[in-house]
Write a structure and sequence with these properties.
This protein is of the alpha/beta class. The protein contains ten helices and nine strands. The protein has a single domain, classed as 3-Layer(aba) Sandwich (Aminopeptidase). The strands form two sheets. It has a seven-stranded mixed sheet with strand order 2-1-3-9-6-8-7, sandwiched between helices. Strands 4-5 form a two-stranded antiparallel sheet. The protein starts with a helix and ends with a helix. The structure holds zinc ion. The site of zinc ion has 5 residues, from loops.
């Protein structure tokens, strides 16, 4: 919101002593950081004390630390949101050439683009169970961590991996609140797919009775037309699905078919696999562009093996990063800097 910044910059502060102004600004900054981050941090940096079980390759790298103990942790994450005004107010003059003040940047500045990467489900409510008895939460966490790494490496430093705890529904509300409080510019929820119960078949894996369905496979991308930023959501969804396809992946076509019963959804893009899923809480209650990616099926025995590989995680994260870069550039060109 450039207009907010402009107002703040031009307010002038009359004839106040300079030192008082600076002190007041610092105080304001500290206050706003405290106020706006309390909720965010408690939601985001809780981590999972009880990790989900049975990962086939349990690499638990860089799971955000529990927030319980640590105040200092929050300082390490100076969010762009509350700081923007202050940052601009503290150091505007050196660069301020009147002639360029109206120039609108047309390329994306990743460091100002705030992304929430939502890890689908929780350690307590793990989502689907794979053909080899691994919880969806484990898959979601590993893939989201890889996406986070790649985004940060590309300069999207304001990327937050969102881990929530507790039961399914309550966790959805927490996710939405975390994203809205930041506020994020983009909310991306990461999941892995399964099938309705009626499709499940029995087999044995690792000496245990297990269930699978090789009938369906593929990724899918969902948006909600109830999201207040629906156009933007659709735009990033289209880019994301296009990138998934460009990576050689195939989308899950079954969601458009009546055989899916209540899981049938309108297919918005036949080429790339964007679906409408209006009622999803995390997509409709978030107040920024919001998209949910089902990265692939873990109930399909072949596809589960692929989803378990670092190569597939790399392919998917590269697609996600490419889509976000493209989206960031596009919205920047239209709306100007954040
Ligand atoms: Zn899920």
């Amino acid at each position: 919101m450039p207009s907010v910044r402009k107002t703040f910059d031009q307010s002038g502060f009359g004839g106040w002593p300079r030192r008082t102004i600076v002190a007041a600004m610092v105080a304001l900054l500290l206050l706003s950081v405290e106020a706006s981050h309390a909720g965010w941090l408690s939601d985001v940096f809780k981590g999972t004390s009880k990790q989900a079980k049975q990962s086939p390759s349990p690499k638990r790298t860089a799971v955000p630390k529990p927030a319980a103990s640590s105040k200092p942790a929050r300082v390490a994450k100076p969010a762009a949101a509350p700081n923007r005004r202050t940052a601009k107010a503290v150091a505007p003059r050196a660069a301020a050439k009147p002639s360029v003040s109206k120039t609108v940047a047309t390329t994306c500045e990743p460091s100002k683009f705030r992304i929430v990467l939502d890890v689908g489900h929780t350690a307590q409510s793990e989502g689907a169970i794979s053909a080899r008895n691994v919880s969806e939460f484990v898959y979601n966490l590993r893939l989201t961590q890889r996406i986070e790494e790649k985004l940060k490496a590309e300069g999207f430093t304001e990327t937050k991996l969102l881990l929530t705890e507790g039961k399914a529904r309550a966790s959805l509300v927490k996710r939405v609140a975390a994203a809205n409080n930041l506020p994020a510019n983009l909310f991306l929820s990461i999941h892995h797919d399964s099938v309705p119960k009626k499709f499940l078949e029995d087999w044995e894996f690792g000496g245990r009775k297990s269930r699978f369905s090789d009938r369906f496979s593929g990724y899918s991308v969902f948006v909600s037309s109830n999201n207040p930023e629906y156009k933007a959501s659709l735009s990033i969804a289209e880019l994301l699905a296009k990138e998934m396809k460009a990576q050689g992946l195939k989308y899950a076509e079954q969601y458009s078919q009546p055989i899916m019963g209540r899981y049938q959804h309108p297919l918005l893009n036949k080429e790339t696999g964007v679906y409408s899923y209006d009622k999803l809480i995390v997509l409709k209650k978030t107040r920024m562009a919001a998209v949910l990616l089902e990265a692939g099926s873990i109930i399909n025995r072949d596809e589960e093996l692929q989803m378990d590989s670092a190569e597939r995680r790399d392919i998917i994260s590269s697609g996600v990063v490419a889509a976000i870069k493209e989206y960031c550039d596009r919205r920047w060109g239209i709306l100007g800097p954040l």
